Amino acid sequence: MPSSRKRPINADPIEEGIDYARQVVARKIPAGKFARLAAERFLEDLKRAKAGEGPWAFDPDRAMAPIEICQQLPNIKGPLADQPIRLMPWQLCWTANLFGFVERETGWRRFRQASIWVPRGNGKSTWLAPLAIYCAFCEGEGGAEAYAAAVTRDQSKIVWSTAHEMLRRAVELRHYLGVEQSAHSIFQPRSASNFLPLSSDAKSLDGLNVHFACLDEIASHRTARVYDIILTALGKRLQPLLISI
């Protein structure tokens, strides 16, 4: 019978994520070639950033901000339902990597695209939904457009519906962010920002001005149409982010 014991709050999430990368590089955690190379790059980038070398700095506060949003949202499925999300070490590592590195001169986010490859059942929706909420409603981006995109509308609603239900249950956080919900959208009136599902069968994909998008099940896309449209729609934003899964 699954344990109902709550997972402990991550004592130092950033350090836990960095330690995960160290263990992957040291082969103490099984990982494929490209996962090890990504971990090596992360650690080398971190070393250079802390030494003041190169154009990129590492800002622990920026790395921690989306993690804090995750921790204030509940799991919605399984034995941990309604308990606060506690990110796994690999999720902490790549959240810190994606959000912690910034350009020294401007403070804008370094990475604008990410490709995440994980087996089914490893919590990608539980991870991506809070990241979408953070990017859409917590980065101070005016009129932020965030999308959960996929081939079909049902598929695109997996991450979006997860975020919708998380916010429904997280009443205090929802009120703090000033976020409202309807049957088909999540929006923040004060910033005119929204988070919506988006599919290739939508009537029109033109005119998007994307701040954040997660493109789900990319291997099932028969063409690059949705990816290409979202990619070109990032151009008007100063620090957009596209995550392909």
Describe the protein's architecture and organization.
The chain has 245 residues and is α/β, with parallel strands linked by helices. It folds into two domains: 1-111, no CATH class; 112-245, Rossmann fold, CATH 3.40.50. Helix content is 42%, strand content 14%. Strands 3-9-8-4-7-6-5 form a seven-stranded mixed beta sheet, sandwiched between helices. Strands 1-2 form a two-stranded antiparallel ribbon. α3 (60-71) packs across α4, α3 crosses α5 (124-137) and α5 (124-137) crosses α6 (153-169). It is globular. The chain starts with 12 loop residues before the first helix and ends with a strand. Residues 1-8 have low confidence and may be disordered.
Quaternary structure of the protein? single chain
| Percent in strands | 5-15%
Q: Radius of gyration, rounded?
A: 18 Å
Q: Looking at this structure, what is the CATH superfamily of the largest domain?
A: P-loop containing nucleotide triphosphate hydrolases
